[in-house]
Amino acid sequence: MKFPFFKFQKKDDPEFWKRYCSYFKTKQSKTIKDTRFVVFDTETTGFDFNEDRILCIGAVAVKENKILIKDSLETYLKQSVFKAETVKIHGILKSEKVQKLEEIEALIRFLDYIKGSVLVAHHAGFDIGIINKALKRHSLGKLKNDVLDTGILFKRSKHIVNIIDPNKNYTLDEIAIELKITPKDRHTAAGDAFITALSFLKILPKLNKNGKMKYKDLFTNPINY
Question: 165-174: per-residue pLDDT in tens?
Fold first, then answer.
């Protein structure tokens, strides 16, 4: 569902939020070829939207069937609470010597990077949800971008050839193995974003068997967050 632009923002909203919302002011006709997709991943302290926080955001742009390595983002966030038990999952140490931003600074950088692009993630509901929760902490609205989930797209591609378990939720590792993608740098935001981008590019032609797929066809099963 699309909402009028005036519901996206208020007069007293910060300039960066107004700038982000401006990309959705008018409806534009889109084609897959001309669309900038931003494939992203978040590493977090856990899976509780209320209690856990974002550790890192990794993203890379995809356009015209190409991964644009130079058009990428990797942002680490400062942490007030450190959970040692999650280090084995995401590999981000509290003492790691990388530049870390305050949460609001990381959100500004992310919004300025994604602009009006289509967001792509694996099991996107979590990544979108954790960012929306962070935005809410700063009295901001939810992300406005169209969203694609590689988990759903992969299941659709298998449905085309009648090989599908409707109750199965494929992990990124399982998809990578099936699509013959080497899972390098797993459980880092940037690494998972790159693997997801490779998966996305391999799934698209499977969905476009007749060569007639249009932008709107990507959203046969729309995702609403």
Answer: 667 788 999 9
Query: Contact 131/142 with Cβ under 8 angstroms?
Result: no
Reported pTM:
0.88
Reported as a single tens digit per residue, the pLDDT across 5-33 is 444 556 688 999 999 999 999 887 789 99
Please list the residues that pair with 129 across neighbouring strands: none
Ordered DSSP codes for 110-155: HHHHHTTPEEEETTHHHHHHHHHHHHHHTT-----S-EEEHHHHHH
d(CA 86, CA 94): 11
Structure tokens at 38: 């931003």
**Every domain of the chain and the residues it spans:** 31-219
Q: Which fold has domain 31-219?
A: Nucleotidyltransferase; domain 5 (3.30.420)
Give the three-state DSSP class for 16.
helix
